[in-house]
Amino acid sequence: MAKSKNLLLGIAAVLLVGQAFINVDYLHPRWSKEYSMGKQGGLASGLGADQAFLELLGFREFLAGMLWVRGDTFFENGNYDAVLPIIRLVTMLDPKNVDVFGTGMWHIGYNFTDEDQRSDRRYLPTALALGKEGAQQNKETYELYYEEAWLWYHKIDDDYPQAVRWLKDATSKPDIPPARRNLLRNAYERNGQPDEALKYMYELQAKAKADYDLDPSRQTQADYGTLTSNIDTTVVRLVQRGNMAKANGGYDQGDYDTKPPFNVGFSAKVTVLEPKVLLVEGTWNVLPVGTRVRVVLRDKDMKDAIPGGADWDKMATSVQLDPPRDLTFMQDQLFVRNMHFSRRIDMSKDPTMYPFAKDNYIIEFYYNPRSAPPHMQDKFGWNGEGMTDTNFLRTDVRPGGQRIMYTSLDISRDQILQRGKWSNLTTVLKTKNYKETGGASGADDDVIMVPSLRSTTSPSAATTVPPGGATNSKG
Amino acid sequence: MTAIWAIASSTLGEAIRRKVLLVILLIALLLLSIIPALSVLSARSEMSAMISTIYFVIRFTSALIAIILTIYMIPNEIERRTIYTILCKPVQRWQFLLGKYLGAILALALMMGIMTALALIMFYWRRPDVVKLAEVAKQPVLYFVEMSLLTAVAIFFSTFVAPLVNFFITTGLWLVGTVLNPLYDSFASNPQTGPIMKVMAKIITSILPNFANYDVKNPILHPGVVIQNEASYYLTTVGYGFMYIAILLLAGIVIFDRREV
Q: ipTM of this model?
């Protein structure tokens, strides 16, 4: 009997070793690769014990649905902070829920604002990281690639190579609706690739034509008609802005809208009116309405900062629900009317968004023609070839020698907070070329003159300088 | 074989007369019948929410039935002294143990079969698609193998520990076993985990019964997921289950044979 017991135990021991090999070397790796629901670091890294318990029992899609309903209630009540952990939890529980990823990105990227509706851009890396994660988890659909691209295209509105990259991925998915494919054309144009935009539109047009031939419905007819019209517009722009001439080597001989470069004559003055309240004034010699100059106030030593913004992609490494609380990053737009701008920027009401925890800050002014509306781009061109500035034209702050306007002013925390030796003094910072506009920023702001930039009678026509005459100086 | 079968059929009869198991089964059936109504809470993911909830109900209640059914089987026979009337006949102890196990598995198969049938009817009512229905039916098959393994764990411990202790040990092992794979992946991918912890995690993953391998619902819920040679995975995981069941039953036979009753 003892012998047979030993035999049984021996068999059990052999089976124990065998099952260990099968489990560790075959089943577990295959399960992790093909059957695991989430690949964002596993359970232990994200979920709490109670949530993990529900997760492990396979209750997660349903739980995620219920949580999302709860999150919607928080959203309706304006309790935006409470929605954040729900978004994170739901995306962990149900990584295939593209709606929650998409809505979460929009919420994080757009809805955290100060009293004046300025976005808290410290959340942008979180929104981008969430989109990256969502796209990774849902490779079969265009949706999160498109949402990510939209953040780059519309919200960040500066780093267009990223928008193009994500839109290329989105348009490679078969489920993308025809209308959404068109955004890639816009992104190509803003990325300074109008030729690619045109090529892409011809591809879309051929497809739309085939769809129309197959099914001559009102919808397919409208798709085809819209594309044809957009191609016409782009071709006209390519001709008038001189891009086609450039491609043929005839740009120097011809008369194009982008010639000669237009001197925008930027200047700025910043006055600290009260603690954390700034008045930003300045000039911009462009009369037609539509210019928005970007102004940024940030920590001078901010990691991953670039002129006029930040390297958001580098910052978007993981989904962090709490933005860096000691970072101050304010971004606003200076709307130009009648060739000048004046904007009061009040950061005093939002101490968590503007903590001013560092000693030194920088105020940046940035204008990139790629983000300009088409009627401005008709003059400035897609790459700023039709724009110059005597003092602040820069070709070294964006890749590919893009011609943009950029300058910056240094300011200290004591100056912003009116503390220390600045407690009884008013801080006024100016670019070297700033000249007081007197009453220009008063009642006549309501009168908007709208001449064309092509008009030879424009006051700005007399102030143009050739691109070579511009200086890359910092005020 | 006749002795084993006789014990198994008598265990099956006992199991289907136990009120507590019938109540659990009834609750599960009620839950399964209202799942289609609850799935509307998940906009655009109604189907995946419905399927995952069906699986949750089947898995959770099956585990509960398997544990409650098994932990009392041998201790009750000893306590009521009915085991003497069986073992005095020409029935070996190993036959008794195998018969009990087989009876528990049959009872489990019956109850899981009823639950799965209702779940599939509810699913087909919401989505009359035979191909998808066949897809959905795959997971309960593996759950049955998982529960057979869980039953083997419970019967192994029932040979030498009291039912209450057995309940906690078996439940704990099942809970740990269902998160073994994701837990191990977390440890392995976390750069802060030390080498000793990683080795420990690997040893634990190698020794404990890995119930997580039976959770194959991901490609069923999300058809975009590509699986290479699904049949080989299913067969291997079933084979793994049988191996582990054999280990537990062999060890249980040896322990039970030495036990004084």
A: 0.85
